[in-house]
Structure formats: structure tokens, C-alpha cells
Design a protein that fits this description.
The protein is of the alpha/beta class. The protein contains 13 helices and 15 strands. The protein has a single domain, classed as Ribonuclease Z/Hydroxyacylglutathione hydrolase-like (Metallo-beta-lactamase, Chain A, 4-Layer Sandwich), CATH 3.60.15. The structure holds zinc ion (2 copies). One zinc ion (ZN) is lined by residues 1, 74-75, 86, 133, 135-136, 293, 366.
Length: 405
């Protein structure tokens, strides 16, 4: 979510236009409604979405493939304690694949049982970043520096795989367009993708690493992690506008094949932020597609064809209107359009995206504002013939019918 929105959101909260007092967060009824949807929907392994829950109970029977919503709040502004920052996991057997690490993701991994323990090992295999916005990466420093103790895993000796955007070759265009371009933030280095960011983290935490490597025999972070910039050179050279090309139908950018799990991606439209990815996970039990941040995207609709679960971002256009109203009149409408051009509204996500993808289940996440009542999000059902699920933190959804003990 762009900075303009954050400033406006802060302003709106300060003036009481849309602060927590007016949007009191998911009501108990709303929360229970969300859980009820999950429990009644079939294919549910376990739900532990009660806000404030200290830990998710262990399910008795589990689906072999599960979708786990770790955090469902969108944007860097924290408006509610009931939703942590955006983070989503796909689990196959004991193998865990995490998309994005927003505020609180490490604690949410613990609460969901996905950090593992000696009696129920979980094995985080891969971490996937959709784009470099801070609300999707802010917990990466936490996991990067404490993975040696927090990511208990089978001792395969393999490094954790990390995937995300490469360095951006040119900065995004300015907004409004006639504003003079500011100077670079990092003049001596790149506009960091995931590998460059991780390199900077290694430098920033060198004192901690040196202590632990020398004094506590910690594994060197270069051996613990294998970081990959996803190669998009065949498809696009990112430019200042950051509007991705329409990829030929059927294009799936290869990311990783890990045994039975295949991970592919496409380019989505989060202009001017680029590249921005959606990811698709295919296991023997079915498929899960995670949208990342995007406006309605034909590339995403292609990637999500026939998916069991489409996990998609959503923004409330009424909230955008409220935010725009706090801005100076001359930029009010351009700013509104700018915000709506890089996100997907409640009205669009079911009718224009999930329906056209033929996704069996649409799971709303990255909810902006995160303190909207659940009933407001249910309007996304209009024009969508599949099953709508309003995401709640720690909700777990089974994929397919295969269960493991
Ligand atoms: Zn974003
Ligand atoms: Zn975001």
C-alpha cells in the first residue's frame, strides 16, 4: 500500500474520520461467522482464528495439503490487534512454504504450529516474497537472524530457500507526475531486491552473527539460507511505470520444484511497484494461488485457472474515498485513482477475478482497512459463483481430501 495512503490513513485516524472508534474491528459475530464459514465449508483441517489466541490447538486429523492464513491485515499501518501483517503458508505433509512476512509473522508461525516442535516437526522449506513493500518483508530480519533457533526443522542439512524480486533497474515514476523526482535513497547501491536486502541484513546484524557463530557455533547465515532473485529477464525489463506486460496465456514463471510441490509465478499489476508476483503452489492434492498485491490482473486470472483456493488481496473503495477526502482538493481524485489502480476492490475481486479464474474458493486477505467489519467483505460474493471465505488470522483450510495423522 503506497505511502500516500499511509499518510492519508494517519490523517483520517487523527481526525476521527475512519479511526478504530468508528470501525471497531471484526465483531464477535463477524469473527464467529468467519470461523463458521470455515468449519462448514468442507475440506477444513482446523480453525484457530480467535483473536488473542495464544496458540492454535493441534488438529486431530489433518489434510496432507493445507492453506494457513498467518496474518490477514494489509498495509503497513497497524489499525487493529486482531489481524497481524500479511503472511500466508501452504503446507504439504510437514513441509511449509511461506508467502510474505508481515508484522508478527514469526509469532503467527508459532501459534499455528508451523515452527514445529520435537513431537510434531514442521519443516519450513521456502519463503517467497511477492514484492518488496515493507508490509510484506518487515518480519524477514527477524526470521533471518533467528532462524537457527526459531525454525526448528528436519536436519536435512539443506538451506532454507528464499525467493523474491531482483533489484529494480530504474526507480518508479513520481506521483503526481509533475512533481520533481527526489534523489535516490541508496545512491551507492541498488534498489534492493531480496538478495541485496538480505546482504544488507547480514551486514547490519554482523555483531550478532559474529558472536553466535564464534561463541555458540551458530551456522553461518550464508549456509543457512539460499536466496534467489526470480529471473524475469525473458518476460520483462522493469521500467518506471511498472505496469507488467500481458504474458502469453499459460505462462507460468518457474520458481522452484521441491519434490511433489511445484511453485510457479506470474507478474501482477501493483504499479508502480515492480516486479510484483503472484505464486501458485501445486501439490498432489490440489492448488493454491496467492495474489500478492495487485489490481485485477489477467496474468493472475491465467495463473489461477481452476485453482482450489485463490487467496487474494482486497481493498474497500469506501475507505479509499475517506482517505482521499483528507487530501488537498487538487490531488484528491488523482490520488484516489492512483490507489485504486494498484489494488483490487471488494466489487472486483469476486466478479472480475475469482469468477473468471474459475477458482473454487476465494479467500480474502490483505484486508485494507484491516479493521473493517467482516460483513463488509462479504459483498465480494456478488458476481462470484464459488465459495467466498473472509480470511481470519490462523484459519487453516484443507486442500483436497487426503488426510494424514
Ligand atoms: Zn504493496
Ligand atoms: Zn501490501
Amino acid at each position: 500500500m503506497c505511502e500516500l495512503l499511509n499518510q492519508a490513513a494517519a490523517s483520517a485516524s487523527a481526525t476521527g474520520r475512519s479511526g478504530p472508534s468508528e470501525r471497531s474491528g471484526p465483531s464477535r459475530r463477524g469473527v464467529l461467522g468467519g470461523i463458521g464459514t470455515a468449519l462448514l465449508g468442507g475440506g477444513i483441517a482446523m480453525t484457530a482464528g480467535m483473536p488473542g489466541a495464544q496458540a492454535a490447538p493441534r488438529p486431530g486429523a489433518r489434510h496432507r495439503t493445507r492453506l494457513v492464513l498467518l496474518g490477514t491485515g494489509g498495509g503497513p499501518i497497524v489499525l487493529s490487534g486482531d489481524r497481524m501483517g500479511i503472511s500466508t503458508a501452504v503446507v504439504y505433509k510437514n513441509n511449509v512454504y511461506v508467502v510474505d512476512l508481515g508484522h508478527g509473522a514469526t509469532v503467527q508461525l508459532l501459534r499455528s504450529g508451523l515452527l514445529g516442535d520435537p513431537s510434531a516437526p514442521a519443516n519450513v522449506r521456502g519463503i517467497f516474497f511477492t514484492h518488496m513493500h515493507s508490509d510484506h518483508t518487515v518480519e524477514w530480519p527477524s526470521l533471518y537472524t533467528t532462524a537457527h533457533i526459531n525454525l526448528l526443522r528436519a536436519r536435512s542439512g539443506e538451506p532454507f530457500r528464499v525467493f523474491g524480486p531482483g533489484d529494480r533497474p530504474v526507480p518508479p515514476r513520481t506521483f503526481p507526475p509533475d512533481r520533481p523526482a527526489p534523489g535516490p535513497v541508496n545512491p551507492d547501491g541498488p534498489i534492493s531486491g531480496i538478495s541485496a536486502m538480505t546482504g544488507y541484513l547480514k551486514q547490519a546484524f554482523a555483531a550478532d552473527f559474529e558472536d553466535r557463530i564464534r561463541d555458540a557455533n551458530m551456522t553461518h547465515p550464508d549456509k543457512l539460507f539460499e536466496t534467489h532473485d526470480i529471473d524475469i529477464s525473458r518476460y520483462w525489463t522493469v521500467d518506471a511505470p511498472g505496469i507488467p506486460p500481458r504474458l502469453p496465456a499459460g505462462t507460468r514463471i518457474p520458481v522452484w520444484r521441491d519434490g511433489d510441490v511445484t511453485v510457479t509465478a506470474t507478474l501482477v499489476d501493483h504499479r508502480p511497484t515492480a516486479p510484483a508476483f503472484a505464486f501458485r503452489f501445486d501439490t498432489p492434492d490440489g492448488s493454491v494461488v496467492v495474489s500478492g498485491d495487485t489490481a485485477p490482473s489477467q496474468n493472475l486470472i491465467d495463473l489461477a485457472q481452476g485453482a482450489d483456493y485463490l487467496v487474494h488481496e482486497v481493498i474497500d473503495p469506501k475507505y479509499v474515498d475517506e482517505l482521499a477526502a483528507t487530501l488537498p482538493p487538487e490531488i484528491r481524485e488523482p490520488a484516489r485513482q492512483h490507489l485504486l489502480a494498484s489494488h483490487t476492490t471488494i466489487e472486483q475481486v469476486g466478479r472480475d477475478v475469482a469468477e473468471r479464474a474459475g477458482a473454487r474458493n476465494l479467500v480474502l486477505t490483505h484486508l485494507v482497512p484491516m479493521n473493517n467489519p467482516v460483513s463488509r467483505w462479504r459483498a465480494a460474493q456478488r458476481g462470484y459463483s464459488g465459495k467466498l471465505i473472509v480470511g481470519q488470522d490462523l484459519m487453516q483450510l484443507g486442500v483436497g481430501t487426503h488426510r494424514v495423522r
